[in-house]
Amino acid sequence: MTKIPEKRDFPVSQVRRYLEPGSIVLVSSKWRDKTNIMTLGWHTVLEFSPSLVGLMISGGNHSFRMIRESGECVINLPTTALTDTVVGIGNTSGADIDKFAEFGLTAEEASQVDAPLIGECHANFECRLHDDALVQRYNFFIFEVVKAHVAPSPEHPETLHYTGDGVFMVAGEIIDRRSLFRPEMLG
Amino acid sequence: MTKIPEKRDFPVSQVRRYLEPGSIVLVSSKWRDKTNIMTLGWHTVLEFSPSLVGLMISGGNHSFRMIRESGECVINLPTTALTDTVVGIGNTSGADIDKFAEFGLTAEEASQVDAPLIGECHANFECRLHDDALVQRYNFFIFEVVKAHVAPSPEHPETLHYTGDGVFMVAGEIIDRRSLFRPEMLG
């Protein structure tokens, strides 16, 4: 069993710290009393404040309609401790199974949305639909992160970056170049 | 000097292999006989075929107008060999300097667009503007990758994933889980 890290509130305007590196994320949703989880690698930060992120959610996913109808989701950041869980979630459909039960994950209550947090993940970002202008054309949802929960330790967890074809890259090692940045570029 | 890797044509429908992991990229552009380069971490894959990618290009960048007016750019994938170059490009403006000259980079001719390829990068993706529906509201450009050039070696180069605040994560180590995927999820 993966342990559940203790998390703290984190400023929503700073979630790029965890999302800009581009790891695969687990997106949890709830609609009509059912929950679901999908893996997602096609996402980007769009704005600091309001805290906006864009997610491309393929229409073939069981989660698509749940997120479309509820207008909510939670973006959860898994670490390498959850590698096989991430693969399992990506290989199954919420039409067939209860993914929280099947993969032994803990659904924790969110504070701003009905969709559950995944306790075992390093960070959880509660999201509300901000703009659906590109949903019909590209399945591209723009969400506002309305609440963020992050485990303070480890400071730089190992994350999974999907290349397709069953292969992940692992990011974890750090290069610090603060000293080379102009002050106004930091913070 | 960073050496210039030899590249081969690569299928545009498979660029997710290099972009989905979410590394920082260098975006080169050309407009009215001037070239420029910017660093960019806010991007996502949107579709396999046509090969669509979304880039959030902040209006404060000198590149913004060049890309907006020309409707073209090249997405270049730097490796850790170019770390200090990436930082330097992000810390300077094309309004003040010629970035190719300043950073000793080689502008190579593209085949489908006027914007130059950066020779020293591991991969180059020539892009043409596909949809500007969200440019005014979010500075979000949807491009079609019309031609891709990739160095066949190394197979998994070390890439830079920006967290903000002058700190990068490095991805390079590989986890192969092909054996756990359903066949239709691979390819």
UniProtKB/TrEMBL annotation, chains A, B:
Domain Flavin reductase like intervals: 17-169
Keyword Membrane: no
Cofactor: FMN
InterPro entries: Flavin_Rdtase-like_dom, Flavoredoxin, Split_barrel_FMN-bd
One GO MF term attached to the UniProt entry: FMN binding
Keywords, in A-Z order: Flavoprotein
Protein family: Belongs to the flavoredoxin family.
PANTHER family: FLAVOREDOXIN (PTHR43567:SF1), FLAVOREDOXIN-RELATED-RELATED (PTHR43567)
Name of this protein: NADH-FMN oxidoreductase RutF, flavin reductase (DIM6/NTAB) family
Species assigned in the record: Consotaella salsifontis
Higher taxonomy: Bacteria, Pseudomonadati, Pseudomonadota, Alphaproteobacteria, Hyphomicrobiales
